[in-house]
Amino acid sequence: MLTEAGKAGFYETPYGKYPKLQILSFAGLFAGKKPNIPLVDTSAFKKTEKEDTSTQHSLFQARLRGFRRGESSADNREFQ
Questions:
Q1: Over the chain, what is the mean pLDDT?
Q2: 15 to each of 34, 35, 77, how far by Cα in Å?
Q3: pLDDT-derived band at 80, boundaries 50, 70, 90
Q4: DSSP structure string for 1-66
Q5: 8, 21 Cβ separation under 8 angstroms
């Protein structure tokens, strides 16, 4: 198995050369062994703006309003 993983080769990144296939056992993982992977540059991921949810109602609240008016779930066409 290790020979086959070695035959898979390596991939190169600006951070170095990494094996394409790595074999880790559960025992190794529990012992603290980690896969050999490149560092992730978190600055590449853009933060999104928070959505204003103050005017939105949850689906549960909307269904409760429908049931209070005597409508059945089949009458609530907006949820289908």
A1: 78
A2: 17, 15, 54
A3: very low
A4: -HHHHHHT-EEEETTEEEES-----HHHHHTT-----PPP-GGGSPPPPPP--TT---HHHHHHHH
A5: yes
